[in-house]
Design goal:
Aspartate Aminotransferase, domain 2; Aspartate Aminotransferase, domain 1; 13 strands; alpha/beta; 2 domains; four-stranded antiparallel β-sheet; seven-stranded mixed β-sheet; 375 residues
């Protein structure tokens, strides 16, 4: 074998040079900050979790599955996908679903499946920062077409103008994180109906349970029309199962078949499959969560009005507001009052803060803390 004196690196340059730390950008847990609040009750209003807790039906299903943890279960995700098809009343067939350990892993699969050095994706900041991270990890160029100033509306014309032969993915969160705003059907129609066939659009609708559904553009409708649209759902929000890590995508059979090639055997834990299937039927828990949002958001809006703070009406379980003082100062002072809130900087909204809509007790603690901190 001939040997070369040329120095060859085994490392992919676009990964080796990557600097962002995904864990650093994730929200802190209660365990990480509990000691900082000096024995006060801690209200976590920073990570958009369900403050009512997990779906009771999911918990019961998970408990029943514990006795079989010694076995390899669910070599395929067929039961999960069949349950999802039934949940969609058969409008989408099992072969149109792709399941994973959270919506985040679906996004990772899309980046691995469709992006590489020389290709591009488009996103619109402020938005979920993971799109950019996973795209860059796969060597793709990330093109930012910012949301329009003021009401954070989607710049459809700007996105369409940014598309070229190298574009493969467009990431859209709707309702959007961190702004809480919703892209109406008319706007989304204009974007989807003008996409070239080599471009796939991710419609990340993990907050869809909280949206005004009379004008919400469900990804399912575009998929049924045969469009290159992927819908993304999660069990971390309305179902209250963020710690379980389960999510799914739905799309055309052609796209789903392609993405299935990225899955491994025994991809998802038996507990997650059992919990997710049970959660799909827990209508009561979802409705209780939705009713809490409807009752508590007006309370917080009124408090922001009283404090003279700019905020955006939300179609999610959180509210974005403009920080009246330095963001880090407000976050840290509110933590000292026992309330966790989150800077919008990591998701492209510097100078703003995102607060989860909590129980009434938690929301009162937030309001009283804000009044105290702001004097």
């Amino acid at each position: 074998m001939s040997r070369t004196t040329t120095k060859i690196s085994p490392f992919k340059a676009h990964i080796d040079q990557f600097q962002a730390d995904l864990n650093q950008k994730a929200g802190r847990t209660t365990a990480e900050v509990q000691e900082l609040v000096e024995g006060k009750k801690l209200y976590k209003l920073s990570s958009n979790e369900n403050v009512l807790g997990p779906s009771p039906k999911a918990l019961e299903a998970i408990r029943k599955s514990l006795a079989n943890l010694h076995e390899y279960a669910y070599r395929t995700d067929d039961p999960f996908r069949e349950a999802l098809s039934a949940h969609f009343e058969g409008e989408l067939t099992p072969d149109q679903f792709v399941t994973a350990n959270s919506g985040l892993e679906i996004i990772d699969m899309l980046a691995r499946g469709f992006l590489e050095p020389g290709l591009e994706c488009i996103l619109s900041n402020p938005t979920f920062h993971v799109y950019e991270i996973f795209s860059q990890l796969n060597g793709a160029k990330v093109v930012n077409v910012p949301l329009l100033e003021g009401e954070f509306e989607l710049d459809v014309e700007g996105i369409l103008d940014a598309i070229n032969d190298n574009t493969r993915l467009i990431f859209v969160t709707n309702p959007n994180n961190p702004t809480g705003t919703m892209i109406p059907r008319e706007t989304m129609d204009r974007l989807v109906n003008n996409l070239p066939p080599h471009v796939i659009l991710l419609h990340d609708e993990v907050y869809w349970h909280f949206a005004d559904q009379s004008c919400f553009p469900f990804a399912k409708d575009y998929v049924l029309e045969g469009k290159n649209v992927i819908g993304l759902h999660s069990f971390s929000k309305a179902y209250g199962l963020a710690g379980m890590r389960a999510g799914y995508a739905f799309c055309t059979p052609r796209i789903a078949d392609y993405l299935q090639k990225l899955r491994r055997p025994f991809f998802i834990s038996a507990m997650s499959v059992e919990g997710a299937i049970a959660a799909l039927g827990d209508v009561e828990h979802v409705e209780a969560t939705q009713n809490l949002m409807k009752a508590e958001k007006p309370f917080l809006y009124a408090a922001f009005d009283e404090l003279g703070i700019r905020y955006w009406e939300s179609h999610t379980n959180f509210i974005l507001f403009k920080s009246p003082i330095a963001v880090d100062e407000l976050v840290n002072k509110m933590l000292a009052e026992g309330v966790m809130i989150r800077s919008g900087a990591n998701n492209g909204a510097p100078g703003h803060i995102r607060v989860t809509v909590g129980t009434h007790e938690g929301n009162v603690a937030f309001v009283e803390g804000m009044k105290k901190v702001l004097g």
